[in-house]
User: Which sequence fits this backbone?
């Protein structure tokens, strides 16, 4: 059965563009459009859509106010349509806090060749939203149907940025590093984890799939809610306990050894698994340079980025954790890691932070004493 979609946007041009792109997929049926939240409210009652795309900035009522009311009165999957500005980033991150599944940026009609890639991303996110868990979790979830439409030659592995290595390094430091990867639903999952970590926790490096304009506001938002010091990572920056380093959007974050210390290294290498930053790239660098002194954690997200890297971390002696299906917005990335055999523990989100601290304190050689 086709996914019933309602498009809510005050711009006639954007409504037309989104409609034309989404009509390309036979699994999506556009049942209606609305110019503002008041019209959207009536259309939702009449048409009972499975998913809505929602503009952030609209007349009469802004998208955030409407989303807040919607999630309280009739929770449903929402994909936000946001502008790539500081204000757009702040509002979109707020929308994800309120329960929106994901977001896309406004389509760029003046950039040659950009609309085909945009359409592919939009279709994928609408499909994932249709099978994702809304924040209220009032209905039984359906299995996520993840779209993987790139051809094999278009889809790079971590080898494109960092070659695999089978050599075992002798570690001259006992410093711990926690590596976290996430995608769809990850901004809120990461917030929940960071809120639970003490100020003196081991250093944390994070790769979250996010646009370049959003990563700094995201880091600032996390810094306000965490006892640790959270920042957007910069190239060459030392990695210190009590600090969290979030990969900049559109750059890979790698962990590099510098004697007995660690540094952040940023790379503009090709996207891996369609993403830059890529979780696989970060996890591989941690496996090679931190080994059993690390803990690997993969949280909610569509696709399979990070699954192979998490297994490489496990094979390097690091304990590995995947978020469970029941608490994931989309069990794509953690599910792929479990299927590949790279996750030693599968835990609900509320237990992840405590387990990370336990593993860094009690299992210095990456050996798990419990399941």
Assistant:
């Amino acid at each position: 059965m086709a996914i019933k979609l309602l498009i809510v946007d005050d711009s006639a041009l954007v409504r037309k563009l989104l409609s034309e792109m989404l009509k390309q997929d036979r699994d999506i049926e556009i049942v209606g459009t609305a110019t503002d939240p008041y019209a959207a409210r009536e259309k939702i009652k009449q048409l009972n859509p499975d998913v809505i795309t929602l503009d952030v900035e609209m007349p009469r009522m802004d998208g955030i106010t409407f989303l807040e009311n919607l999630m309280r009165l009739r929770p449903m999957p929402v994909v936000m349509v946001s502008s790539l500005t500081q204000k757009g980033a702040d509002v979109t991150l707020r929308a994800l806090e309120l329960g929106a599944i994901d977001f896309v940026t406004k389509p760029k009609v003046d950039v040659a060749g950009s609309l085909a890639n945009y359409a592919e991303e939009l279709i994928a996110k609408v499909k994932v939203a249709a099978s994702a868990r809304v924040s209220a979790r009032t209905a039984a979830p359906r299995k996520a149907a993840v779209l993987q439409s790139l051809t094999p030659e278009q889809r790079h592995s971590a080898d494109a940025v960092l070659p695999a290595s089978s050599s075992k390094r002798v570690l001259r430091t006992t410093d711990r590093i926690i590596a976290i990867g996430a995608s769809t639903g990850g901004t809120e999952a990461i917030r929940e984890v960071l809120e639970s970590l003490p100020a003196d926790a081991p250093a944390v490096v994070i790769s979250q799939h996010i646009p370049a304009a959003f990563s700094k506001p995201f880091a600032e938002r996390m810094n306000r809610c965490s006892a640790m010091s959270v920042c957007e990572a910069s190239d060459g920056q030392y990695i210190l306990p009590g600090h969290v380093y979030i990969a900049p959007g559109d750059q890979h974050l790698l962990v590099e050894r510098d004697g007995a210390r660690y540094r952040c290294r940023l790379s503009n290498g090709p996207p891996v698994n369609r993403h830059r930053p890529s979780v696989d790239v970060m996890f591989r660098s941690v496996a090679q340079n931190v080994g059993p002194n690390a803990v690997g954690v993969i949280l909610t997200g569509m696709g399979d980025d990070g699954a192979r890297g998490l297994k490489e971390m496990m094979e390097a002696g690091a304990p590995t954790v995947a978020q469970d299906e029941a608490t994931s917005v989309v069990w794509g990335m953690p599910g792929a890691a479990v299927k590949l055999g790279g996750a030693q523990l599968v835990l609900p989100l509320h237990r992840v932070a405590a387990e990370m601290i336990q593993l860094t304190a009690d299992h210095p050689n990456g050996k798990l004493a419990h399941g």
Observations:
- Residues 114-130 form the longest helix (17 residues).
- DSSP finds eleven helices and 14 strands in the chain.
- Residues 137-153, 364-371 have pLDDT under 50 and may be disordered.
